[in-house]
Amino acid sequence: MSLRRESFETARSRVHRWVESLSASLAIVGITTLAVAAVEARLQPDHLVFIYLAPAVLIAIRYGIISAIGAIITSSLAAAYFLYAPRYSFMMARPLDVMELALFCLLALLASQVVSGFAGDDSMV
User: Fold this and answer.
1) Between these two residues, 9 and 85, which has the higher pLDDT value?
2) What is the torsional sign of CA 35, 77, 52, 19?
3) Nearest-5° Cα angle at 83, 24 to 50
4) CA dist 123 to 60, 83, 115, Å?
5) Which of 17, 45, 57, 120 lies most in the core, judged by the most C-beta atoms within 10 Å?
6) Which has the higher per-residue pLDDT, 16 or 3?
7) What are the residue boundaries of the structural domains of the chain, listed by start?
8) In this structure, how many other beta carbons lie within 10 angstroms of the beta carbon of residue 35?
9) Terminal-residue alpha carbon distance, the chain
10) What is the C-alpha radius of gyration for the chain, rounded to an integer number of angstroms?
């Protein structure tokens, strides 16, 4: 009976951690999207997609690489929808924008992998 209760608590804990990491990822990417939209509306700069590196790295530090991959996917979808022409569509008008988004995904994945490795390594202290 006790073993069954412990396995139930472990499963509940896993689900709780998964929901927590998912909601934190979505919240951080949403806040970043609002900030990027405000900056983009006033300044009209190029290459704003790389601002999304910050949420991916923060999620990787706190929750690990799997959650960071979710944040990278969400960030790339938000960038494609809000930043690239035509606006409010997942279509991209220029091949250069597609390459920029692919480069962002690769760079964010690499940075998240490195940061999550450092964050999880206790022998570095």
Assistant:
1) 85
2) positive
3) 60
4) 18, 41, 15
5) 57
6) 16
7) 2-124
8) 13
9) 41
10) 18
The number of C-alpha atoms within 13 Å of 12 and in the hemisphere containing its C-beta is 6
Per-residue pLDDT tens for 73-113?
999 999 999 989 898 999 999 999 999 999 999 999 999 99
Q: What is the pTM of this model?
A: 0.82
Q: Round to whole Å and give the CA distance between 111 and 68.
A: 10
How many angstroms separate the Cα of 37 from the Cα of each of 9, 21, 33, 46, 108? 42, 24, 6, 12, 20
Per cent of the chain over pLDDT 70 is 89
Range of lowest pLDDT (44-48, 60-64, 121-125): 121-125
Separation CA 106–CA 84 (nearest Å): 18
d(CA 45, CA 56): 21
Whether omega for the bond prior to residue 95 falls within 30 degrees of 0, making it cis, is no
Pairwise CA distance, residues 34 & 19, whole Å? 22
pLDDT at 8 (0 to 100):
60
